[in-house]
Amino acid sequence: MIKMVNVDKQFGKLWALKNINLEISAGEKLVVIGPSGSGKSTLIRCMNYLEKPTSGQIFVDGIEITAHKAPVAKVRQSAAMVFQSFNLYPHKTVLENLTLAPIKVQGIEKKQAEESAMKYLERVGLTEKAHNYPSQLSGGQQQRVAIARALNMHPKIILFDEPTSALDPEMIQEVLDVMVGLSKDNITMVVVTHEMGFARQVADRIIFMDEGEIVEQGTPEHFFSNPSSERTKLFLSKILR
Amino acid sequence: MFSSTGPFAWFKWQALFADWQIFAQGFAYTLVVAFSALALALLIGIILGIASCSNIKPLELFSRIYVEFFQNTPLLIQIFFLYNGLPYAGIVLSVTTIGIIGVGMYHGAYIAEVVRSGIGSIAKGQLEAAYSQGFTYWQAMTHIILPQAKTIILPPLTMQAVNLIKNTSVLAVISGADIMFTAKSWSSSNIYYGPAYVVAGLLYFILCYPLANLAKRLEDKVNALPAEAGGKKSRLAKQDVTVGNS
After folding, report:
1. Average pLDDT over residues B161-168
2. Which chain B residue has the Cα nearest residue A83?
């Protein structure tokens, strides 16, 4: 579903990504972990071209988005993103947040977009907030709306960029619960997170990044019981205290 | 000063009021030029303002050059150029057209800067969210960024309209039939300068004061918004309000 071939990303002199090769199959739940500054956010942002790689190729759903004049806007519709800081549209109601892109970008009838929006709001448990504005919601509720907004694009892939990192501790679980529910579906999920419990529960595969490289990858069992790299061990020992 | 020989002698006022229609015509002419120039300035300003944030290098460069050129040369010289320079290239424009184009292009530069800073005040995440949903740059601007920037842009934009109205007075130097020229020509024939310029000033004031006042009220409204929407009110203060209302 996503394929990255020899991808490099430089910010000035800083190498955010070094020769990344990665293949994610359809329906796979991939969790990306690593210390801050390890390049994991850059990695996931490259997958829908919010970040342009310096070199290398990225294929999403069979389309090379790094190609000249690639239909990036089209590809992004099938690879929805959930941001750390929610990024809901503050001038639109919750319902409008969910329907704006389906109507304007995908050309779906308003009524139909609203029906599916309500369905997804029900899924994240927020139907009663449909006509509120984002500023009237708690952080956890806003992030659940952001997930529903992503789902209402009917994407094949959903990218989570540290979805719980900006939340107060008591709101983290409600968002994780929604994501765990989502993982039962056939959708491809890529999740950058520090929530190791979630990784263990949901991931088909975990990749550990450090200094712009994929240091180690494997199943959760492999990762938490028997990591091979010293860097992985060091990171896990810090985070799993 | 108001004695029978002073600059504001009563008989001079009488003469002016007798000729009120001349001043009314000047007023109407100024209105026409100001409105047309404002429409042009808005068009130029919004397009260039959006272009200057587009990340498309040639567009950004063009917008930058335009803004710097018009902001850093006097409007008077630009008007002289249109009036005295263009005829050498075989282009002869009417004084009204020169007024509209000259003032419109000049203030277009200022409005472009107002729009640019308004767009810049919207969090970067908004554009990213829009992109991630498949919006193009122009769609993201019209549906997501500009509607949010509108409240922030409006007060300085209104002040630009005030400046634009006042700047239409440069048309007097090329005999533009506006308020200023009317005052100048009427008073140079009878040397009743005092009342003429007082009335001219008053006519500009009538147009500008309500707008300036509106700008002030719009700005108060922006400042009452929470900080994340571009206002000055802190998050805490906003929560207090919510608690008070519930």
Report:
1. 93
2. B129
In a domain, B3, yes or no: no
Residue B133 lies in a domain: yes
How would residue B239 be classed by pLDDT, with cut points 50, 70 and 90?
very low
CA distance A19 to A54: 10
Q: Where are the beta strands (DSSP E) in chain A?
A: 2-11, 14-24, 29-33, 55-60, 63-64, 79-82, 157-161, 188-192, 205-210, 213-218
CB contact under 8 A, B131 and A50: yes
Place of tokens 């896990």: A236
Q: Is residue B1 included in any domain, yes or no?
A: no
- Per-residue pLDDT tens for B199-237? 889 988 999 999 888 888 888 888 776 655 555 554 443
Which residues are paired to A4 by β-bridges? Answer: A22, A58
- The structural domain count of chain B equals 1
Confirm whether B2 is domain-assigned: no
Q: In chain A, which among 61-80 make CB contacts under 8 A with chain B?
A: 73-74, 76-77, 80
Report chain B residues whose CB lies below 8 A from the CB of A153: 133-134
Decide if B132 and A135 are in contact by the 8 Å CB cutoff. Answer: no
**Residue contact A87–B129, C-beta within 8 A:** yes
Contact B110, B45 (CB under 8 A): yes
pTM of the model: 0.80
B54 is in which domain, residue-wise?
A: 11-239
| Domain CATH for B113 | 1.10.3720.10
A190 contacts in chain B (CB < 8 Å):
none
